[in-house]
Task: structure prediction
Amino acid sequence: MRKIVLTLIIAICMINGPAFAYWVWTPESGKWENPKYAAKDTPQEQLDYAVSFYKEHNYKMCLREFKKLIKYYPLSKQAPTAQYYIGRIMEDLGRPYEAFKAYQKVIDLYPYTESVEEVIKREFKIGEAFFSGKKLKILGPWKVSANDKAIEIFKTVADNAPYGKYADSAIFKAGLLYKKILDYDNAVMMFKKLIDDYPDSKFIDKARYQLAECSKRMSLQSDYDQTPTIVARKEFEDFVEKHPESSMSDEAKKIILKLKNREAENAYNIAKFYESRDIPESAVIYYRDIVQKYPDTEWAKKAQGRLNEIQKK
Result:
């Protein structure tokens, strides 16, 4: 049923002569409105009208008309399509992050729409663009790295469809970005999530290696706390054990040796600390531990030398 339309002609006297503004009564809003800002009689008519502007690349007009459809027909089956087109417009205008936010509204407001899969695909591609180095405009010609935006987008993609086509790739790339910005705690969480939740993923080998690599880098940030170093070494050892034929196994073995050497060095420094505090009994424990656990390191020889000196005293 078409809306009941009552037209009120309001004559406005202006300095340069009369101008006429036309207003219509809209039962949906219960207000008098200028036809310029009123929606078409049906949501499909409104959608077709908006799309006609989009095809002409008249983004200003089509954006206004899509928003009008959502405002006046929020529960119609055409509403999610209008929201989707807003995302497309933002992409066409070179505003990818705003496009992502617009696409996400489709998921948040209309989770059962048929366009969900297409929306997630477009979100993922925006994340990939940022991942590959596309920068974010902030003011005029100024642009900044968008690693944080890419992480947000990848995590959102995985949350939107945990077992969808892009979930494991999104989680892996979020982990790589966390590693890139030196946030190893969150990087480890991402790689562990991929390993635990997606055991058949094509990224599983790389995720195990990255997990070990991030654990190693975390260990390099510690002083006397051996835990991160030990965890890193065990991650690499686990990787070598499970993927002996991997091209990365040789590099992993070299890293294992370096980590063992670091563990031995840390233990040696602790022993020296106890010696400097005149607590030789504690120092002896650490020196013996080095000799037994890390016999193939340079620190084992040094530890044995200190043990010999302490025994002489």
The CA atoms of residues 178 and 186 lie 6 Å apart. Confidence is low (pLDDT under 50) at residues 1-21.
